[in-house]
Specification:
By secondary structure, the protein is α/β, with parallel strands linked by helices. Helices cover 39% and strands 19% of the residues. The chain has two domains: 173 residues, HUPs (Rossmann fold); 92 residues, Pantoate--beta-alanine Ligase, Chain: A,domain 2, CATH 3.30.1300.10. The protein has a six-stranded parallel β-sheet with strand order 1-4-3-2-5-6, sandwiched between helices. The N and C termini lie far apart (43 Å). 39% of the residues are buried. The mean pLDDT is 96. Bound molecules: adenosine monophosphate (AMP).
Length: 283
């Protein structure tokens, strides 16, 4: 049987556990998550194991990245199942702070990102989001002091924002992006997929199909504005409310007009019933 990871819930306990891991295993990789773990998270853990002697996974549903109208209260939580899965994967440490350990009474500081966090994508529809993410990820990086931290390309703008934040604040943790894990029909794995009704679940892969089709048409030299208009119509006709379908420069996230302006990343966000899904694809 695999050994259960050390589970810590306070910063002093974390520091002690990290110091011991450092002594025994030299290097540490961190995989930040909000729990409700799935194959996407597990793939980050497997990448982490290749990159460091010890793997720490944080599980914290961060209240600061949810707007009052969003799903903080109902966000799926299953700590026992998460720990069982992380045990099988050989994770060394689970950092599962309480809200009070992360944001004690009187907490008054925020990290406020600009640049990729103001690209006019997720930030337009979730204005609270990236400030909450960078505040908690900066804290996680400083708490754990990992050599490397693994993030999914699934949240592409977030990956760019966190990379920029770590670099701007001279935090020595190296941010590494890992490929999106998908269901067989192309739907990107997400903790929020459990919200989908059976009928919505059938519809959901339309997003990936549109991304793939749009990427192929961009490569074939068709006009990007026309491709995106067609894609938005396809997604809308399938029953979604589209927040955005955009072609952006893969590094700067600036809008692009032609294939030559690339490398291009296609990014989409759309709502299906009560569930908001995001996805993206390189061209
Ligand atoms: P979350 O728990 O949703 O905040 O995600 C934690 C980390 O897992 C983030 O770096 C996500 O980008 C990553 N992640 C979520 N879904 C996937 C997926 N389908 N494939 C790869 N990484 C993912």
């Amino acid at each position: 049987m695999a050994r259960k990871p050390i589970i810590v819930r306070t910063v002093p306990a974390l520091r002690k556990a990290i110091a011991q891991l450092r002594k025994r295993r030299k290097t540490i990789a961190l995989v930040p998550t909000m729990g409700a773990l799935h194959e996407g998270h597990f793939s980050l853990v497997r990448h982490a194991r290749k990159r460091a002697g010890a793997v720490a996974v944080s599980i914290f549903v961060n209240p600061k990245q949810f707007a009052p109208t969003e799903d903080f209260g109902s966000y799926p939580r299953n700590f026992a199942r998460d720990v069982a899965a992380l045990t099988e994967l050989g994770v060394d440490l689970v950092w599962a702070p309480t809200d009070a350990a992360m944001y004690p009474d009187g907490f008054s500081t925020a990290v406020l990102p600009d640049g990729p966090a103001k690209a006019g994508l997720e930030d337009t529809y979730r204005p609270h989001f990236f400030g909450g993410v960078t505040t908690v990820v900066a804290k996680l990086f400083l708490q754990v002091g990992a050599d490397v931290a693994l993030f999914g390309q699934k949240d592409y703008q977030q990956l760019k924002v966190v990379t920029r934040m770590a670099s701007d604040l001279d935090i020595p943790t190296k941010v590494v992006g890992c490929p999106t894990v998908r269901e067989k029909d192309g739907l990107a794995l997400s903790s929020r997929n459990v919200y989908l009704s059976p009928a919505e679940r059938q519809t959901a892969p339309v997003l990936y199909r549109v991304l793939k089709d749009s990427a192929a048409r961009i490569k074939a030299g068709e006009t990007i504005a026309k491709i995106l208009a067609d894609g938005r119509a396809t997604i809308t006709n399938a029953g979604f409310a589209v927040d955005y379908l955009e072609a952006r420069h893969a590094e700067t996230l600036e809008p692009v007009a032609t294939y030559g302006d690339g490398p291009i990343r296609l990014l989409v966000a759309a709502r299906l019933g009560k569930t908001r899904l995001i996805d993206n694809l390189g061209v």
